[in-house]
Design goal:
The complex is a heterodimer of chains A (about 475) and B (about 425). By secondary structure, chain A is of the alpha+beta class. Chain A contains 18 helices and 19 strands. Classes of the chains: A alpha+beta (about 475), B alpha+beta (about 425).
Chain lengths: ~475, ~425
């Protein structure tokens, strides 16, 4: 990227919209996954969709790869810069463009912070349902890229359920409007495939969100069990009883200790803690909560508390949401893993993780969205001890293999990004991966939008069956045919 | 593929020979009048036994340069535009197995040719359901319902198919058999192809199996209805209920001929929860008298589609989509446009999706549909035509796809470069 191009980009975004000094670029060399770092050539901070279009036209013409970035809280390296590429930060595009309560829609720019959407509509008793633990800092654009979940997606669904339409700037600078405020726009569900595409299909500049009416009542129950086996059995019991809680979370003893140390959530010291939240009409919640209480007791819960006030409820959640960061209290370093298993495989998978943890001499704390089988094992280690980091990484990867073998997934909400692209080949066959990449070839045939992420091997979009046609990237010497 | 050239006899023979090597000979047969799609009569019907056979047969047709119509129960073949060509019907009739009902995990993996009824009965054995009220459940198949994105009133609470499907396996024209998604509800590994093929009308690939998330069957049900004075009042009531803290499962407004509109609300809850909510909804609906019409009112959408099939000459059935604040009132827009020229029965859902059955002369229908479509599109909505009257000069079934059409064409080009699948039936001539 030469000076001439930087000058052209500066004219688009203004002096303050372009960062090229090495000191400032350091901020952007990684996201929430800090063990991968790449220095970008420059960072652009557009403040309008037109500027994003203009930037991408230049990138397209010059074949410069780009990576879009929201708040940089992602945990899979999705916003990790690529070699010789630029980062496009959407932080300045942080306006809520429209609040439409009668239709329960909010239209937002990508840099809007997740919690601020709820902030704008809470007085009217609405909320934006997807609630990743980082919701006070993460951006809607980043949530769209990652299809973020959160504790309450068990009942309310993921980001994809709540995104009805998008303005997307494609890698060549073209603007397309997909979906809309009304449902079922004619044609392919491009919003469905764009959400969760981890920045590889273009940049969303305007997002139509669905908001939800706050339920009449919310109750949170905390149950202490001797071990994760009993707690897991109680989860199965709750699901089998035909209930769909708003959230169903589990923490094991190590995770409880860390959370206690960090935020004093006043959790009982037990083998496993189950947090069950029900919401809905008062009479319904009360009837079901009685049933949940019975199910927990019959599976060996020795202490059950129902939060009696909003403050108590907030404290219960504070401990849970702080669980990742709290690991710093009990371990110098840790890896956050994100795997999914069918809920019924929980006891078997837990005992396998336990066995591997003992074998490797590395502690694993467990925090999970138990209702949907999304595990967050936290692999604890000390970088200063020779070999521990490698052993921790190996154990963490081994856990993913266990999830795949159990019929699950390598990621429930953190994304594939840079971190897990090699594991994609374990979960999917080559034809599966090649088929997914046909979508990418339709959106971004030159692979400029967050290239090198998600897929272990890129598909050459210029490939035509029979006759050999060299791909533009191949001609340019960027990639080799294999 | 050249759309305007019929296949040579030799192409058909080449394909039939290939198909008989893939599928047992008795399942490769000449098409008949019963296989007509949108007025076009195909030549050959193939019924593969499994997804490998299906992918191979599809590939053989693709290689032979033939146009393929994938078919499940055949209940919605009239949806979309007539195909520009139709040579081979590829039927999923023999792919009808329920592969794995993981009831403790609330998921099911099922082959595309399984009917909704068959699936419903199997799931009910464990007190579960696919929370979806598709039309023609006795014959409609999993693959067909997914391809047409057909969902009914339960969508308000449980989401549409896009929110219920968690995995698919697809056969592509080049013979690829590929899976995406998985068997767990929460999964962000790779692109979400299950959503891409939902509602794609089989133009990207043939769905051979799907995995769904399930919901428990409700313990108790209760339907509450009231008559509203007019469409405006019905619209207001629907919005008030939507803005309340009730946890209803469905909400629709029915218009039958010149009767006053009827507002129906469905609750699914425990006995205690039901009693409390019924009291609350009565307060919202007051002073209108509340009636308990029984569960049959939820068949209203099916009845409109059935009527469309029964009177093919002078009736149209359309699906409309509008903002929730405009949806019920769309009937007033229609009334103004129609000015007495057509009769209409309709069901409007709180989600903004509605279904209308319109009767009139072909000329009147055509002009009313075109005007209604442009009024809806102007307000950010859509109108798609499921059944066109046979006497009417055809309108495009889909309407305006907007500036994403080139991107949709690019997606089609990647999955089906020769235009083998359902040529011309989809949006923008795809």
């Amino acid at each position: 990227v030469d000076a001439r191009i930087f000058q052209e980009l500066r004219e688009i975004v203004g002096q303050r919209g372009l960062i090229t000094s090495p000191e400032e670029l350091h901020t952007y060399e990684c996201d929430g996954l800090t063990n991968f770092r790449v220095m970008p050539r420059g960072v652009l901070l557009p403040d309008s969709a037109e500027q994003v279009q203009a930037i991408l036209r230049v990138c397209h013409r010059e074949r410069i790869p780009f990576v879009a970035r929201g708040s940089g809280t992602g945990l899979s390296g999705g916003a990790l810069p690529v070699e010789n590429g630029v980062v496009i930060s959407l932080a300045r595009m942080n306006r809520i463009l429209e609040v439409d309560l009668p239709n329960a829609r909010v239209v937002a720019e990508p840099g809007v912070i997740n919690l601020d959407v709820t902030g704008r509509v809470q007085r009217e008793a609405y909320f934006y349902a997807p609630d990743p633990s980082s919701q006070s800092v993460c951006s809607i654009g980043g949530n769209v890229a990652e299809n973020s979940g959160g504790a309450h997606c068990l009942k309310y669904g993921f980001t994809t359920t709540h995104v009805l339409g998008l303005d997307v700037v494609l890698a060549d600078g073209t603007m397309v409007h997909i979906g809309g405020k009304a449902l079922d726009a004619p044609g392919y569900d491009l919003a469905g495939v764009f959400v969760g595409s981890e920045g590889t299909l273009g940049i969303a500049t305007r997002i139509i969100l669905r908001i939800v009416k706050r339920p009449e009542c919310v109750q949170t129950l905390l149950a202490a069990f001797p071990s994760t086996n009993e707690a897991g059995a109680a989860v199965s019991g709750i699901i089998a009883a035909g209930m769909l809680p708003a959230a169903l979370e589990m923490m094991d003893n190590l995770a409880i200790q860390a959370a206690e140390a960090a935020v004093h959530a006043n959790y009982p010291n037990c083998g496993a803690l189950l947090l069950v939240e029900l919401d809905g009409p008062v009479a319904e919640v009360h009837a079901l909560m009685t049933h949940v209480d019975e199910i927990c007791r019959s599976h060996g819960a020795w202490e059950i508390r129902v939060a009696q006030s909003e403050a108590e409820r907030a404290l219960v959640w504070k401990g849970r949401k702080a669980a990742f960061a709290a690991m710093g209290r009990i371990s110098p370093n840790y890896i956050v893993q994100d795997g999914v298993i069918p809920r019924t495989a929980l006891p078997q998978v837990m005992s396998e993780i336990d066995r591997l943890s003992r074998q490797a001499g590395i502690r694993v704390a467990n925090v999970f969205h138990a209702g949907d089988g999304n595990l967050h094992p936290l692999v604890l280690y000390d970088r200063r001890i020779a070999g521990q980091e490698q052993a921790a990484e190996a154990l963490s990867y081994r856990i993913l293999e266990i999830c795949i073998a159990a019929g699950g997934s390598i990621t429930g909400e953190h994304g594939v990004g840079e971190d897990k692209k090699m594991a994609m080949a374990k979960m999917f066959s080559e034809p599966d991966l090649q088929t997914m990449q046909r979508v990418r070839c339709a959106f971004d045939p030159l692979h400029l939008s967050n290239p090198t992420k998600v897929f272990p091997t890129p598909r050459l979009c210029g490939e035509k069956p029979g006759k050999y046609v060299p791909h533009p990237l191949e001609k340019a010497g960027v990639v080799e045919r294999f | 593929m050249d759309a305007d050239v019929s296949p040579q006899v030799s192409q058909i023979i080449t394909f039939e020979d290939a198909a008989r090597r893939i599928v047992s000979a008795e399942y490769v047969r000449a098409a008949s009048a019963a296989d007509v799609v949108g007025g076009v009569e195909p030549r050959v019907v193939v019924e593969p036994a499994n997804e490998q056979e299906l992918a191979a047969a599809l590939n053989a047709a693709n290689e032979a340069g033939l146009a393929v119509i994938p078919r499940g129960g055949g209940t919605k073949l009239a949806w979309g535009n007539p195909p520009r060509r139709a040579d081979v019907v590829l039927s999923t009739a023999r792919l009808s197995a329920i592969l794995d009902h993981a009831w403790a995990d609330l998921t099911v993996s099922v082959e595309a040719g399984c009917t909704i009824k068959q699936l419903r009965e199997a799931l009910a054995q464990h007190g579960q359901r696919l929370a979806l009220d598709a039309v023609w459940p006795n014959r409609a198949t999993v693959g067909g319902v997914l391809s047409t994105n057909d969902s009914g009133v339960l969508r308000l609470r449980f989401g549409a198919l896009r929110d219920l499907v968690i995995g698919v396996t697809l056969a592509l024209p080049d013979g690829t058999l590929a899976s995406s998604g998985g068997r767990v509800v929460k999964n962000v590994a790779g692109y979400d192809l299950p959503k891409l093929v939902t509602g794609a009308l089989g133009t990207l690939g043939v769905i051979t199996r799907a995995v769904f998330r399930l919901h428990p069957l409700p313990k108790e049900l209760c339907t509450i209805s009231c008559l509203a004075r007019d469409a405006s009042e019905a619209q207001r009531l629907a919005l008030t209920i939507q803005d309340s803290k009730l946890a209803h499962s469905a909400l629709q407004v029915r218009f039958v001929e010149s009767m006053p509109p009827q507002v129906d609300v469905l609750f699914e809850a425990t006995q205690a929860g039901l009693a409390a909510q019924v009291e609350q909804v009565k307060a919202i609906l007051a002073p209108n008298a509340v009636i308990d019409p029984g569960p049959m009112v939820w068949n209203a959408r099916q009845e409109l589609y059935t009527a469309g099939k029964d009177h093919t000459e002078a009736a149209a059935v359309v699906k409309i989509s509008a903002l929730p604040v405009n949806c019920v009132a769309a009937i007033e827009v229609l009334g103004r446009i129609a000015a007495g020229r057509i009769r209409c029965n309709a069901v409007m859902q709180a989600t903004g999706i509605g279904c209308m059955h319109l009767e009139g002369t072909p000329d009147a229908l055509r002009s009313v549909l075109a005007s209604l479509r442009s009024e809806l599109e102007r307000d950010g909505g859509w109108l798609t035509i499921a059944h066109q009257p046979s006497g009417m000069a055809a309108l495009d079934a889909w309407g305006e796809p907007g500036d994403a059409l080139p991107l949709m064409r690019a997606v089609k080009q990647q999955f089906d470069p020769k235009g083998t699948l359902n040529l011309g039936r989809y949006v923008g001539g795809i």
